[in-house]
Design brief:
This protein has 229 residues and is mainly alpha-helical. It is 67% helix and 3% strand.
C-alpha cells in the first residue's frame, strides 16, 4: 500500500505517523510475542506487513531496532493504563488492586504467552544490548511507580513492598503461562491483598510510635549443583 501517512490518533499536534511503520510495528508485536524475536525474520515481517524491504529499512535500521520499538509500544501501553488509574480518584491501594486485576485479565486472555519483557530479556541476555536495556528501563519505571503507590499509603518500607509486588507480578505472569492461569491469577490477588494488609499496618505502627518486631530470618537451605534450567 506504499508509504501513506495519517495523522496520529488523538493528536492535534500535527504529528504524522507512517501507516507502513504502524503495520510493521503491529506485525512485529503479534509475531514477536507469539513466537519470539529471534525466530521471526525480516522477510516474514515484510511479507505479513505488506511492505517492501526498502520500506522496512526506511523506518527501522534492523530487526533489533524494530524489537526495541515493539517493547517501547508495550511500555507506553502499560504507562497509559496505569496513568488512567492514577489520574482517577481511586486511592493508592485501589490502584494497586486495579493493576493486579488487569494482570489477571491479561493472564487469562487468549494467546497469552507470559511477560513480553521477561521473554525479550531471555532472548537478549547481554546487558549492553538495546533490547535488554529497553527491558531494564521499563522494569525500573514499573518498580518506581509501584513503590510510589505504596509510599502514598506509608513510606515505611515502601521500597520493600514495591519489590515484593513486582516479584508477585513476575511469578504470576510466568505461572499463568506455564501452568493454570486461573490459579495464578487467584494467587496473585491473594498475595496483593496480603501485601497491602501488612504494608497498611506498618503505617499504623508509625502513627502510634511503635514498630512491629522484626522476626529473624531462618537460615537459608541451599541445594548444590541444581541448574536453574
Amino acid at each position: 500500500m506504499g508509504d501513506m501517512t495519517t495523522t496520529a490518533a488523538g493528536a492535534g499536534t500535527g504529528k504524522r505517523v507512517s501507516e507502513a511503520r504502524a503495520r510493521l510495528l503491529a506485525t512485529a508485536a503479534r509475531l514477536f510475542y507469539a513466537e519470539g524475536i529471534h525466530t521471526v525474520g525480516v522477510d516474514r515481517l515484510v511479507a505479513e506487513a505488506k511492505v517492501t524491504n526498502a520500506t522496512f529499512y526506511r523506518h527501522f535500521r534492523s530487526k533489533e531496532d524494530l524489537a526495541v520499538a515493539y517493547l517501547d509500544s508495550v511500555d507506553q501501553a502499560i504507562r497509559t493504563q496505569i496513568g488512567s488509574l492514577t489520574a482517577s480518584e481511586v486511592p493508592p491501594d485501589g490502584i494497586l488492586r486495579g493493576i493486579g486485576a488487569s494482570l489477571v485479565e491479561q493472564i487469562g486472555s487468549p494467546g497469552y504467552r507470559g511477560c513480553a519483557f521477561l521473554n525479550a530479556a531471555a532472548e537478549f541476555p547481554d546487558p549492553g544490548h538495546p533490547v535488554h536495556r529497553a527491558v531494564v528501563e521499563h522494569r525500573a519505571w514499573f518498580l518506581r511507580t509501584i513503590t510510589g503507590l505504596f509510599a502514598e499509603i506509608t513510606t515505611a518500607q515502601a521500597d520493600r513492598a514495591g519489590r515484593h509486588f513486582v516479584m508477585l507480578r513476575d511469578g504470576a505472569m510466568s505461572a499463568g503461562y506455564l501452568g493454570d492461569p486461573v490459579l495464578a491469577g487467584e494467587t496473585l490477588l491473594r498475595g496483593i491483598e496480603g501485601l497491602l494488609r501488612v504494608h497498611t499496618a506498618r503505617g499504623g505502627d508509625d502513627e502510634s510510635g511503635t514498630s512491629a518486631p522484626v522476626q529473624p530470618s531462618p537460615a537459608a537451605t541451599t541445594v548444590p549443583d541444581v541448574p536453574c534450567r
